[in-house]
Design a protein that fits this description.
The protein contains 1 helix and 44 strands. By secondary structure, it is mainly β. The protein has a 5-stranded antiparallel β-sheet with strand order 1-8-7-4-5. Strands 12-11-14-15 form a 4-stranded antiparallel β-sheet, with no helix packed on it. It has a 4-stranded antiparallel β-sheet with strand order 19-18-21-22, with no helix packed on it. A hairpin with a 7-residue loop joins strand 11 and strand 12. The longest helix is centred in the first third of the chain and has 5 residues. It is globular and about 90 Å long.
Amino acid sequence: MKQHIKFSWAIAAVFIAFSFFGYSQSCLASFTFNYGANGLVTFSSTSVLTNTATTVYYWTWGNGAPTFTGTGNAGKFPSYTYTANGTYTVNLFILSSAPTCSSGATAVITITNVNANACNLNANFNSTQSANGQVQLNNTSTGTVAATTYTWSFGDNTPNINAVSPPHTYSANGSYVVTLFASNNVTPACTSSFQTQVNVNTYCNLVAAFTKTNNANGLVNFQSTSTGTLNGYLYHWTFGDGAQTNSGTNPTSSHVYSNGTYTATLLVMNNSVMPTCSDTAFQVVTVSNNTCGLANPTIVTSPNNGIINFSAAGQGINANTSYTWNFGNGFGSFLASPTATYPSSGQFGVNLILSNGPGCSVSKFQTLTVTGIPCVANANFTVVPTGTAQVWTAIPSFPWNVSGVQWNWGDGSSTYSLYATHQYSASGLYPICLTVTANCGATASACASYSIFKSAGFVYINVSPPAIKYNSIISGISEPSETLIAHIYPQPNRGIFELVHSAGSETPTNVYLYDLYGKCIKQLFWPNTLQPLPVNWSDLHSGMYLIKISGSQGEILQKLLME
């Protein structure tokens, strides 16, 4: 029988499109594909987009291979070589911002032209970097039939070249998708391709510097004079006296010192590109004019299984001294000797501000280690249908403070992300299992069987966050109204996003990040809410967090979903 599919063009009708996480549906995913020789398939996104510049493409090939992520033409026109004949379900998920939207599409492809005896060519490479953007690409391709041609696409819009292991120089820092195409002249043609992302971080002309001005009663003003061509600076001020670090996009800062000599530090980071470019500057600060009497405060604690008693000691404390405590667990106090409860063992940042009146205050920051609280992981979840027999929702139990997660869907596939979507192609009874690892190290697993029915096409399970009662997490904050004053773009994200204020002003605003135990783990200063605040918290684990935005216009909480 003549085999027609080997070189024929086949255009796939993409028959399912879906959206995620509540995004506005202003884009629609779709794609076509065509077959090449020996398992090679080239794909072309035909998605309807409102902003192609910010679109990220996520491709899964249906054979267990890692998800391919790309932008621009690299993400829009990928190719993939299958090594075994069979039927595969290919998925495309697109995510755009400004405006924000998401959509997905899927299609089934059938591979029949893989000849293992004629071709086992496997393209592969790794890379090493040197100064000024130069990357050496090291060809590690294997196969019993030697390739006659190696073609490289560098992902930076420069022309493709034919070479075995070429060097390439990039003109700017950034992430680039590099593709190697290997082929030979056997009949039928033997081809293979390999793609990976190369992160270039060799350009950095950022130079940190700052000035200081001493004022009355120990007040010192700092002004960054840092230079460099990169934009989107983050400034991290450390004052050298144990006070809490001041971080944000404001190039100025101030601090009240007790009399003495200290080393102030400025860490400047570029937040507009990944990986980050940074530099550090130091200056000695000498203060001798603090006459208000407060000096050298210390924080005294008496721990007891997560219930901690606090008090303060230091020069100048009297009956008129006021106290402002931040316990690092989402709570605070104005008492002289307060008590705080911690939900888990770990390290918490405690900050104390003492004041004897206007212009007379000192602060102290101290890391508190809490022990003796059992480490517990919670893996419970429920799965329920959501309006249609074709879509179900999985909801993990609250709290959801984990560093690792695995979903086993009962059909031989697994997902390692916190919030995910899974597709079933057939009805049946599926044992779904969830395994979690808590931040404290504990692990737990839970399984339950669900009868999944379908009427047509595929059935999807979407993992969604649990409902949150904000008052149970952080005291003093009510649930946000339907008219929010700030938004997160994109949402969900991988720790790199913008805060946008819909009723902004030049009034300073503080931003706090809490985990779902109520522990405050990060803090930023938003000096001008008329401008978006770029945030880079890519060091966080996947999961759900709470962002508190506090300013003169009030306080609100927002969910932050980390993939």
